[in-house]
């Protein structure tokens, strides 16, 4: 009889922990944004924390982490290399092509760069823009 009591207690404890796990999973991670402003309005305060108030405009990897898009016609080689799937070699070719032919005016111009295939083009379209005004406040 004593063995049945111990087993029941362990089963009840296990079910309680399982229920607690399900409740925690349903609430975390929270899908709501941490800040109440759009990504292009986010600034960094003097301590380097993201805020919707005054501060400096994030650049480089900070801006990519915040969901901002790079201006493909202004981004440096090192900034382009931060885009997942691009890497240093393709970033170098993109910057060289831009310097040789001038601004990219269409995605077909970007697709013509050696090393940019269909998959890389989609990656670039997701992380960059060709028009600085469409970069939603991005200054680079």
From TrEMBL:
Domain of life the protein comes from: Bacteria
Protein name: Helix-hairpin-helix domain-containing protein
Cited Pfam families: HHH_3
Alphabetized UniProt keyword annotations: Signal
GO cellular component: type II protein secretion system complex
Domain Helix-hairpin-helix DNA-binding motif class: 78-97, 108-127
Natural source organism: Corallococcus exercitus
Signal peptide, first to last residue: 1-26
Biological processes annotated in GO: DNA repair; protein secretion by the type II secretion system
One Gene Ontology term of the molecular function aspect: DNA binding
């Amino acid at each position: 009889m004593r063995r049945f009591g111990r087993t029941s207690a362990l089963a009840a404890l296990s079910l309680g922990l399982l229920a607690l796990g399900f409740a925690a999973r349903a609430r975390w991670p929270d899908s709501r944004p941490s800040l109440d402003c759009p990504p292009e309005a986010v600034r960094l305060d003097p301590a380097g924390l993201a805020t919707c108030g005054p501060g400096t405009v994030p650049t480089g990897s900070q801006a990519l982490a915040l969901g901002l898009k790079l201006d493909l016609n202004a981004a440096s080689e090192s900034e382009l290399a931060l885009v997942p799937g691009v890497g240093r070699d393709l970033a170098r070719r993109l910057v060289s092509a831009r310097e040789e032919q001038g601004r990219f005016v269409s995605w077909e111009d970007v697709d013509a760069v050696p090393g940019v295939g269909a998959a890389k083009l989609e990656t670039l379209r997701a992380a960059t823009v060709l028009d600085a005004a469409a970069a939603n406040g991005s200054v680079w």
